[in-house]
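[STRUCTURE TOKENS]
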Amino acid sequence: MTRQHLWVLLVVAGSLVAGAADGHPLQGFLYGTVETLSKQEYTGVIRWGKEESFWDDHFNSVKENLPYQKYLPEGQRGRRRKLIEIFGKDVDVAWEGDYAARQFVARFGDIVSIEPAGKERADVHLKGGSVERVNGGSNDIGNEITIYDESLGEMKVPWERIDKVTFRSTPSNVDVTARRLSGDVTTVAGEFSGFIQWDSDECLSTDKLDGESEDGKMSIPFGKIRSIAREGAHSRVKLADGRDLTLFGSNDVDESIRGILVEDPRYGRVKIGWKAFEQVTFRESRDTGRAYEDYPAPHEIRGTVRDTDGHVHTGRIAIDLDEAYTWEFLNGSRADIDYLIPLESVRSIEPQRRGSLVVLRGGAQLDLREGKDVSDESDGALIWTRETMKTYLAWDHVQRIDLD
């Protein structure tokens, strides 16, 4: 799909700071330093591949080290290989040895640095000091990185030339000509509001909606669009100037769309499929989301697990023999809507006959029916009741998990 790459203009110190009266509205843009193998450093606003641009965007890969899988009973182990789509990205969830490989998902705001370790590998250094070795699994590994260097302008650095990417707070002396897309999305399950990534891709006012009309092909900047509504297999597009268009013939405007992502503060990130989507109404805003410093250092998950025999186990927890830190995510689905919820936002998980009831710290409740973290596909829970004592519970023996 054709995209505009010249979407950023950096303004160095001494220039006018757009929106300074509003604080620092551009704080949500990715910013950092790219060190190359030739020992050069480039510093500025970053776009990861052609998609991720903000601290709440996700870096996706596959975990190479699975320290908790050894507690899975022998009878539940096996060998499989499967390619699945996670929030618009193809993720290879191959089985390695006897254990299921697991997806790695972290917000860029939780990451200190990323160091390539080969064509398909990288070491991800997280706030708090932990390091995850990841291996392939999505186009976030091995992709080109665009950095808008403060002195040189736009630089496109191939993955194989990168030695290290170090993230840091976005300074107030940068000006970005594009706005971040935000608005309200109406679905069959209600309304979601927040920042929007259309087709799991377009997130800026300068990105374009591609489609065909009766009069020919069109490529419309999102900044000129007021709303998009599903009409069968087509889309009704209303422009800011009041005109209405019917578009078809591309994954931006028909059922082949890869999903509409909404960063809804109530839940985290939701992905809305075509069948659930009804309409999006965009709103103009200079807000770009949380700043890098707004993401605290993560910590281990702790809480209480009650089993079906009435016993209570308190301590450190690994959910699904995988997620054990607050930077990680709980995923589940219902009605063609996928939820990727930061574990720091989860208050409790209660397995049901079908899926789980998930209660969030903000008070929202979700009855999720699909997803490995919330269904009978889960590998269960591991609880460190003492530093040297661990208790494993299969998922069908878990009555409720309450997180501290």
Remarks:
- The chain has three domains: 20-167, 182-282, 299-403.
